[in-house]
Amino acid sequence: MGDVLGVAVLGAGHMGADHIRRLDQVVSGARVAAVADPDPERAKEAVAGIEGVSVHTETAAALDAPGVGAVLIASPGPAHEEALLAAFERGLPVLCEKPMVPDSTGALRVVEAEARLGRRLARIGFMRRYDAEYRTLKSLLDGGRLGRPLMLHCVHRNVSSPPGFTSAMLVNSSVSHEIDAARWLLGQELTAVTVLRPRPSAGAPEGLLDPQFVVFETSAGALVDVEVFVNCGFGYQVRCEAVCERGSARIGEAHTMVVTADGGARAEVPQDYLVRFADAYDREVRDWVDATRRGRVTGPGAWDGYAASVVAEAGVRALGTGARTTVEMVERPALYGGTGTR
Amino acid sequence: MGDVLGVAVLGAGHMGADHIRRLDQVVSGARVAAVADPDPERAKEAVAGIEGVSVHTETAAALDAPGVGAVLIASPGPAHEEALLAAFERGLPVLCEKPMVPDSTGALRVVEAEARLGRRLARIGFMRRYDAEYRTLKSLLDGGRLGRPLMLHCVHRNVSSPPGFTSAMLVNSSVSHEIDAARWLLGQELTAVTVLRPRPSAGAPEGLLDPQFVVFETSAGALVDVEVFVNCGFGYQVRCEAVCERGSARIGEAHTMVVTADGGARAEVPQDYLVRFADAYDREVRDWVDATRRGRVTGPGAWDGYAASVVAEAGVRALGTGARTTVEMVERPALYGGTGTR
Amino acid sequence: MGDVLGVAVLGAGHMGADHIRRLDQVVSGARVAAVADPDPERAKEAVAGIEGVSVHTETAAALDAPGVGAVLIASPGPAHEEALLAAFERGLPVLCEKPMVPDSTGALRVVEAEARLGRRLARIGFMRRYDAEYRTLKSLLDGGRLGRPLMLHCVHRNVSSPPGFTSAMLVNSSVSHEIDAARWLLGQELTAVTVLRPRPSAGAPEGLLDPQFVVFETSAGALVDVEVFVNCGFGYQVRCEAVCERGSARIGEAHTMVVTADGGARAEVPQDYLVRFADAYDREVRDWVDATRRGRVTGPGAWDGYAASVVAEAGVRALGTGARTTVEMVERPALYGGTGTR
Amino acid sequence: MGDVLGVAVLGAGHMGADHIRRLDQVVSGARVAAVADPDPERAKEAVAGIEGVSVHTETAAALDAPGVGAVLIASPGPAHEEALLAAFERGLPVLCEKPMVPDSTGALRVVEAEARLGRRLARIGFMRRYDAEYRTLKSLLDGGRLGRPLMLHCVHRNVSSPPGFTSAMLVNSSVSHEIDAARWLLGQELTAVTVLRPRPSAGAPEGLLDPQFVVFETSAGALVDVEVFVNCGFGYQVRCEAVCERGSARIGEAHTMVVTADGGARAEVPQDYLVRFADAYDREVRDWVDATRRGRVTGPGAWDGYAASVVAEAGVRALGTGARTTVEMVERPALYGGTGTR
Q: Which of A123, B25, B45, C329 has the most beta carbons within 10 angstroms of its beta carbon?
């Protein structure tokens, strides 16, 4: 399939270190060629025991290091725009963790830069598109057996929110996954959003509006509702039911073992996203490496990253006002034309 | 437990005939003493083979017939108010099919009449309160093990709508069950309603807004969302998930047998409410007969019938305007004080 | 449907008292006319508050009491034979709790007595035939959609065994339900039995061979295996999977509510047979009353009671020897011909 | 982690080609260094597009090819013994597809040869030990929370049997997976076996005894029953329920999506083992490559291969005689002592 792909990994924090392990040990056909992190010690630790990796503190130096043929961006969101533009300048294919760029203005600059290049280089790390359950659902919907999708009922629950998690982050961080998943599953843009706010759970930190109930309208008249509850206490649960004209399909309740004991039959619920989506991350990176080695850019792109930003921003406004808020997007550049959200 | 209860059944249509069969063959301790229907042939047919029943065309005559100790109202909704008032005049306990009275003004007159009497006589036929699954859920919520309920996610699906079914009827007929169930499960009033209207299914009759997505707010800040889809095609499905502070509980997916064949594992979905709620109807009438023979009036009462009417009317207005609509109710009379919605 | 059926209940212990309550309060069309128990105080307690019941210490006196039109035998097993023969003499229809007669010689005498009468009077209380899940499975098997049944995999688990429960009773008391259910579901006789004895559970009383694994062969070459485990600790669980030529069907895992909390999704398992089969008992007695009032004798009969005794005795021998043991039955009298096990 | 592992793959048929693809594209840290197949064209096809592979017709030549550090045996069973011994001579670590050696005499020679070496080199391809569900069950059983395992109820169903499949192969090919899985899950040897033969399904080829019901006894007094049905028609289904002293645990019914349509709720059943165990094969080979690169030999070994052969042979004899047949094994060499079956 061609040479082993040398990857520069930007960011050696939690996510970056996990991707470094994945590239080194799990995914065939790739190797970590360079790593950059403002903290050189952290970078060194993350690549300890891996041969042939150069360690940098600057993005540019890592991208220009010998053997680098692609970039994986796992630095904090605010650093993404600069990194993406630097990769574009060098013509390097990129896998960029979500959010592509936290604010839609910056996201638009990335879209415009790539559009100017005239070819796609960026894939955005919406890993749910690589989850086996989501893929099965997507394939069912695309097949048309159940007719047109009318509604998606989504649930996104975390055991507890990390320190510093804000009410806005329920929308622009947690629900951003559902935003992309809905756009992809339906092949439609989200055009308006309303956020309903039940009285917060006693289990949520003081002042956090948790749970929230977010309702999106789509360009083809479908509805997408999302319960987001980041202090549900009992597990990490991501469910999606697609209600179509001739039937309904649900994912998110798979389990491996049922134990009957103590008066009940019980199936474990995963406790975090790294367990629930472990295979999806592996498949995502494997697919990216395979495609890149074949010279192809596939998967969710810069337009999807931009769209997610715009919708999330509208959602945050809707959370503040309590009112239905329309989503205003620029026209989709020809580069992403037609099948961009598919 | 005292004498066998003689019941006057008003209305010998589909529902009335089913209740006549139930009183005659299923429920111990009661008998059909009289029946009234504008169509005397229909009434005679419904009681064919049952001894000791007098047949009438007028409500008053049936109520005054010998041996009548209670009334079961199964006539069309517009006839209910007069029948209830007639029963109140005679001091007869009543089981009245839903809707108690189709319009809230008439419903209020019933409430006021009973309040003037100073004692409860009416039970309203919200049969879900007698369904085993709903009762298990109610008991869990009341027990408090999962903390306070924050949201109810409800689904109400029918195979297909009968001729003449209107967009408003999705709210004031179908969803009226969820209105009562939510009030009862939560012990809260519904205070506002918004109706979202996805693009209708191709499987719905021309012009029918089906499905709809109805969101209620409650007096204690909980949310209740209801997908109502009366032409879903595949079955009769009533689900409810209560999301609480420390866990979630779901009902509506019980099944008796799983068949693995033809490449899949499959459980039947009931095809209509008479199958799904067969036991609930039996239990409802048995409970009413038992309580009545003991001289007690329990279960959902006139206030619940009134509340359901008011909320449904607000829902129909919300469907028309697309806007969030508040529910305006009179003050609850002392007769229904405190525990009326429980 | 004719007059209310007056029933003489023999035995006022746990089961008898429950049937008295059922006839009085649950089942329409019947009343308790007489009760007999060696302990008159126990009998009086069981019918306290019910009008028109005569209380006796002797079976004959109860059967001859005024108003008695049928008999329900709920006395201890050893008393059944005499009671059945006494009912036969008087031409009274009988519902006899299982076991019909504990030993097959006595059971055969009952069969012969009824055969001499030339008409069926006895129904045996194999209540599983009235359970909704079993009936759904029976109906599927009879419909033939899945082809011929090849195997039944059965599980019969109790939380704990009562004092005095012996190793033989796992076969001739617990598994006797599966013996009848298998004969009925398959429409075949059981022709041989092997009992395998894993090392007993530490949770079983000293000396009790628990669990056991019982394998039956049938007249048409099917296999029926039964795990019987009467000290499983976690619940009362009765499961049955029918493996057919074109698919498999399972019952016994219905549940009403799934609660997700504390890291898992959990459904309650019933804790005893009175919960699991509550509806089946009601339906059984209602069906018996209805049929009896119509002058019909239906349901499992004396032949089924005899067959269960013979198979259970072979099972107990097989438990003792560890060897495959054939079941030797007399020829089936014409009275039970052809469809007797159906 | 050290150098990339060069693997000689013996056999380029269906299984061999799949492993070649896996080593080339899926598993990180390994590469195909040589391939041997009596049919050189088939070998060339299997490695088309992969660089640096030498192609051979003889086992010895492949093992001696440059860059070979380990062997993966995927040739037909009868060729395994010679290949294993050749690998042992060269001190090469081996992953050998099951059966290790089809007959127990040959299997014993492999065990003895490895015991003489004094160190383990062989891992046997019992891939279920790498399946996520089996591992979860194993971990639960080892944890002891449910007490001692008393019984395993297993089901092994295939859609249809390939041409030439014999009645003996249901035991020594299909059930051989359960033989190893049971030994591993329980940490016990299987000591006796009985095969029950229901009347064959009309869906099975003429003369094939299908299904069969195989019952094993274990060294610690547990029971293992296996329904094997290789023409079940509806799917590939592998289930296992472990019944323990304080609870029961089941695997084999995971699914990703439930579709409600056409009157039922339905989950797909996988149609073949390559779908059901795709991840297990990947994990098995990845684990082998990782361990080998670290200089370790782990997983199921030659003793497990020998034990499976002996038990399967006893099973085939039991199938022929219909009688309970004891399993006679040699004493376990010290090399495999103590934890060999774990």
A: A123
